[in-house]
Description:
Layout: H1 3-21, E1 27-31, E2 38-40, E3 45-49, H2 57-69, H3 78-88, H4 92-105
Parallel strand pairs: 1-3
Antiparallel strand pairs: 2-3
Helix pairs in contact: 1-2, 2-3
Amino acid sequence: MSNASSKIRFKQRVRDWATKLDVRIAWLGVRPMQNKWASCSTEGHLNFNVELMEMDEKVWDYVIVHELLHFFVPNHGKLWKSLMRAHLGEYEAYEGALKKRAQTLTPPPP
């Protein structure tokens, strides 16, 4: 599948989750990012790392829900974790997959 069609599918998935979680998105971007998978702002701006397009859709859901929940919970405390579990079940496996992938993307220290 081409990167362009992956981006289209990914963005639709973000919009579907935003509707489900009642989050208003002002701007949605997929671009190269250094050192992070995604970011969000209080103004409703969402950015996702283009590297996600090469990953499993379950990982997409993890990153999407992770960011969207930050519109309600700004940290990774108990409430955020319980909401993640409510929407995704055992989400830690996807978190682990991202950490493993990040190690392959980050150049080793000198």
